[in-house]
Amino acid sequence: MHGVISTLKTNCKDCYKCLRSCPVKAIKVVAGHAQVVPERCIGDAECVRVCPQRAKVVREDLPLVQRWLDRGERVIVSLAPSFAGCLDWDLETITEKLMEKKIAAVEETAVGAALVARAHHKLPAGPWLTSACPAVVKLVEIYFPHLVSYLAPIVSPMIAHGRLIKSRDKDTKVVFVGPCVAKKAELGEEGLESAVDAALTFEELREWLDEPDFSQLTVNDMEETAKWGEQAARKFPLDGGQLAAIGQCEFEEGLAISGIKECLEFLQHFDAEAAPRFTELLACRGGCIAGPLSTVKSFWQAKKRLEAYSQRPLVIEEEDVDLSRSYQPKPVSDKEPTEAELDEILERMGKYTIADELNCGACGYNSCREKAKAVFNGMAEVQMCIPNMRSRAESLANLVLSSTPNGIIVTDNDLTILDLNPQAEKMFSATSSRMKGKPLELLLDPVYFIQAIEENKPVQGQVSYEGLVTHQYIFKVPKHRIVVGIFTDITEQIEQKREMEKLRRETVGRAQEVIQQQMRVAQEIAGLLGETTAQTKLLLTKLIEIIGQGGE
């Protein structure tokens, strides 16, 4: 199964829809991305069908086929009988278009189906589980290994036809074309790898022939049919079709089951003594024509067309081809956690009591404990629990809202109050329980909320509300049709600012008084200094005169 179905990580959006749809939980979630585990996958491709983001992609074999043709190799197409129901083309039209692509020949896989039906005719007494559906074979080998011995030791029609073609020319490349994804994995199974070289889906066929829609082509008369095949063999793609083919070989006792869930139920309660000689198991409900990549627009119309096509008589000669195969049990070995380990994982998932285990299935697992076991085995992540993550997100949001020092008011576009956080309750002397559903104007002047709505841009600034001074930031959230107001109480800062301004004015006034006083003192000192200086000058002058006279 390696490489058949892969994930485009950029497209994977944590929806877990593929995991919910996978009947065997062969999906591993790593860093939020859902990846197919080849060792667990049965190839039913339900994950491909349901993925809303087209993140699951199927391996394309078309480039490989094109390289063979470019090198001039001989390529024969084995066309699944479901084409008659799934495509609006007849065999002649398909053959003509493929030969234009240098395909050597187009043959019907129904030839292999006829050989397989004949081989079942030769089996000893059962009970036998038919082996035409590779998804069912994988289901038994991996998840019901104890039932492997009941699988009919006969190859599928695709492998039978491939071996037949190779028996004529071993160097021929055989390309199967049908609606099944599991066929891409089957051709690589041990012991089967040399029969068919590539497998294309009908979607790849449409891409190859460059036809945007099969229905745009003209449907030719189907009277001219294939060269080989017994008519009932063409019913293999229908629920009960293989039993019908085996019935042509004189066996009528059998049970037909289609749909992977129905197959699982049957295998879970398999009773060899009560089982019929042949049980036909098909993974796709209704048969191959209803497969995930069948391109069928109307199942009932497709079934009617295929049944009509299968009525045309065809004869096949006895062919000496080895149709045998063997099977190997491939059980998945999961570890079983202890109760303590399980409880620890459940607690990490937010499941502290039985009541916390909602078993909602949103993560893809049927129960919280089943998911916890998957976490233990590395198949799932704790964060996949959507209710828990939502609860955590809400708790974190509530924690932020309740602990923030800012007041927060949320209204709808009609200015009806939706919520207030505790700080807003304190700021505006109101309670959230009483104000929810009430008009905003009962709490405060809505003028700025209205401005934010009308101008469709944030409104911010300083606003006073009856002794409360706030810096507010009001904005719309168009996606959710709400308006949010964030209020920061700056009343104390404003009061402090006023006190500082008062102190500044008082300080400036006092400084001016001191300066004036100092000026007066300086002037007085200057006056005194002037008088003293004059007296000193007079005295010194007189002293000089006396000294001068004494020298004569």
Write the layout of secondary structure elements.
Layout: E1 5-7, H1 17-21, E2 27-30, E3 33-36, H2 46-50, E4 56-58, H3 62-70, E5 75-79, H4 83-86, H5 91-100, E6 105-108, H6 110-121, E7 128-129, H7 134-143, H8 157-168, E8 173-178, H9 182-186, E9 198-201, H10 202-208, H11 241-247, E10 255-258, H12 260-268, E11 278-282, H13 299-310, H14 339-348, H15 368-376, H16 386-403, E12 407-412, E13 417-420, H17 422-428, H18 432-435, H19 447-455, E14 459-465, E15 468-477, E16 482-489, H20 491-550
Parallel strand pairs: 5-6, 5-8, 7-11, 8-9, 10-11
Antiparallel strand pairs: 1-4, 2-3, 12-13, 12-16, 14-15, 15-16
Helix pairs in contact: 6-8, 6-11, 14-15
What brief labels describe this structure?
single chain, 552 residues, alpha/beta, Alpha-Beta Plaits, five-stranded antiparallel β-sheet, four-stranded parallel β-sheet, 20 helices
The largest sheet is: 5 strands, antiparallel
Question: Which regions contain 5 or more consecutive residues with pLDDT less than 50?
Answer: 214-229
**What's the end-to-end separation, in Å?**
140 Å
Radius of gyration (CA) equals: 44 Å
Describe the strand arrangement of the main beta sheet, using strand numbers. Answer: 13-12-16-15-14
Shape: elongated
Share of helix, binned: 40-55%
Overall tally of structural domains: 4
